[in-house]
Amino acid sequence: MFRKADFRLVAGILLLAVVALALGQWLIAEPPINLSDDISPLNPRLFPSLVLVGIVVVAGFFIANRIRGVEDFEGELEPALAGDDGGGTKRLLGFLVLVVMCALVINTLGFLTTMFVLMLGTSLLVGNDSIAQIVAFSAGLPFVIYVLVTHVLRTSLPELDAIEAVLVPFLGTLPSF
Amino acid sequence: MLEALLAGFEAALRVDTFIWVSAGLLLGMLMGAMPGFTTTMGMSVLMPIAFLVGDPLIGIPFLIGVYKGGIYGGSVPAILISMPGTAASVVTVMDGHELTKKGQPRKALDMGLAASVISDFISDFLTLILIIPVAAIVLGFGPPEIAAIMFMSLVIVSVTATGPVLKGLLMLGFGFWLSFVGADPFSAMERYTFGTTELYDGFHLIPMLIGLFALPEIFNAVRSGDRKRGRVASLVGDRLSWKELKASMRTILRSTGIGTAIGLVPGLGQTVAAMMGYIAAKNASKHPETFGKGEIDGVAAAEAANNAVNGPTMVPLLTLGIPGDNVTALLLGAFMMQGLRPGPTLFETSGATVFAILIVMLFANVIFWFIGYYTIPLFSRVVTIKKSLLIPITIMLAFTGTYLARSNPFDLVTLVGFGIIGLAARKAAFDVMPMVMGFILGRELEYSFGQTLSLAGDSLLRFAFTERLGMTAIVIATPILGTLIGLRMNRLRKQDLVRGG
Question: Which are the contacts of B453, defined by CB distance < 8 A and separation ≥ 6?
């Protein structure tokens, strides 16, 4: 399992590097006019291309060593990843879907609702079986953080107008910092 | 340099700075005391707070507090439930938990605290002394030397990273390449942005750091689910007496020396220091047979050595921009987000601020003592908190911190992306530190190299061999040094694996 994991990661990086090298002229824009060496001493494509060639060479060595069967020693395997019941992978996939969804909807649903959903879903996935505790934590903590960030650090967080309208009278009673 | 030191002393004497250090120490101890929650994870999740407060004399000392507190906090579960809170506390388990079994957990925790604080104080003081001459030497460096040192830093970090050298180099290259996403530093032309405005400024450092360091821990915790923990021994037994502390002073000082020396060398870190300190104490003891069976000197040796590493890692970090481990890589990011670029120019541009931070770090040890002494009973309870309560809080903090960095929801998507990369890297035993270093220094290196080319004019070779011999020497020495260190590291790793079975 371990050997496959590092081979797959290296192959992924190699593929990315080859594609980026091949499509370099479309992915990196060139200045429309010639700039003097004092203004632009380096072509914007030079460093990325050098690094990508380096990645291809190193990844190539790595893969060639693996294919030739050169016995490189194995690094230490993360204990938590060593053994897994099928449920662990399902929980992880569920969690990934949850975090991606929350990342995409935070501006639409607002901070409090998104964090409520995120904390609620995570608590259930991790195995908390106390519904009262889950609801209290998922609703209470994001609210505390919201107040701290918007009222103490004076930084905005995305929130629905309707929820903000409900919160304004309460926030107005808090001492200002 | 001395003027900057004096100005730094004056700037350090601020009440708000010490309040934030205390908060950092408390949070660090809390994170360290929770089994499975590492100092790196705690620092990465709390880093946005340091960024938001905006003042380097608050933000950086806050994170240093988290660092110091986290390393000590890791010894609490190590002693009480034989489960190290951080990798640095692995050695503390040997005698610490044996003392708990003998009914003396309080004595072991007291010794851990005393040894940590004493060694931290001495090593921070040595750091302050050592950093002045090193900073004075590197102060005369210009863009060519800076570019050469960055090149050397990147190579050293890659070869000293966990795992084979090829893996380190590959991650370095990957991080380096990611740093090119966005506008080119000279002509401002777009690179790998796919025409989107979100990528024009490149990836932000905060989602990258939280994604690579904290999210994989959260993913692992979700995957493994909540596990029941054993009962925690109540804090019974005698407290550490002054006589016992005095008897262990020789061990503490020896371990402090070992930890300080190890901290100066990038890539070794607290775990190696703790092991070496422990072995040295055992060899020097009149009763080596008592080690591993509840010897109080064993706790002192391990804890003094691992905490003594904290301060000296700042010497290569601040003067050359080379972080010694993941935590100092995070500190490097924190410095840069506060507008301070560790490296040869740091002491020229912000000498007073940097000295103030180092002085705060020194005085923080006094606060560390008081907080540790009075909160040990509290942190001994923390080890029982359920993971199912902590993980949701941590993911919420990670999301909030990332969003606050620049109020851009796109950063949340990159956070998850970097989290997946971090998880894949862990699964394949790839160290992410070279990737972070490549990302942080990539554009800087390109910029310094461009400036060098501008200075060199028509002939870079003539410039290198006539005007900038220092740069040339570093560039020539780096591959040789990298190869030698890499071969040595590979040999050490192989030996370790053979020994480890």
Answer: A37, A41, A42, B460
